[in-house]
C-alpha cells in the first residue's frame, strides 16, 4: 500500500508541516479543519453555526479530492473552544448527513485552537 497525499485548492492550505489529508489502505484521514473560507480568503467568525458549516465544507472538499464523501465518514473528532456550543454544533453537524447513520465521534473542549477559532474538526473516512 502506498500513502497518497491529498491536496485541494477548495480547502485551506496547510499552514505547517502537515497535509490536508492522507489516503492509505482504503481510508482517508483529514487534518483538523478550521472555519477558513478559501474563496473569500478569510476566517469565518460570524458565529459557531456559520463556523461549523464552513469547517464541514472544508472537510467535504478534502474528502471529495480523495475520492470519498461525508457519507463515508466513520470517525469524527470535534474540538470546541466552548462546550456550551455543543447543541448548536450538533444541529449543523447533523445537517451534513443524509440519515441518522452517523459516524463515531468525540467532542472535547480545548483551551485554544489555531488562529483562535472556536471549532476544529478532523475525520476518518472510507476511500477506495
What does this structure look like?
With 128 residues, the chain is of the alpha+beta class. It has one domain: 2-Layer Sandwich (60s Ribosomal Protein L30, Chain: A). The chain contains two helices and eight strands, in the order βββββαβαββ. The strands form two sheets. A six-stranded mixed β-sheet has the order 1-2-3-8-6-7, with helices on one face. A two-stranded antiparallel ribbon has the order 4-5.
* General shape: globular
Cα distance, first to last residue?
A: 12 Å
- Specify the number of helices: 2
Using the 3D structure, state the CATH architecture: 2-Layer Sandwich
Order of helices and strands: EEEEEHEHEE
Strand order of the largest sheet: 1-2-3-8-6-7
Proportion of residues in β-strands: 25-35%
Structural class by SSE content = alpha+beta
Q: How helical, in percent, are the residues? A: 10-25%
Question: Gyration radius, to the nearest Å?
Answer: 14 Å
CATH class: Alpha Beta
**Quaternary organisation:** single chain
In the CATH scheme, what's the topology name? 60s Ribosomal Protein L30, Chain: A
The total tally of domains equals: 1
**How many strands appear in the DSSP assignment?**
8
* Low-confidence parts: none
Main β-sheet: number of strands, strand sense, barrel status?
6 strands, mixed
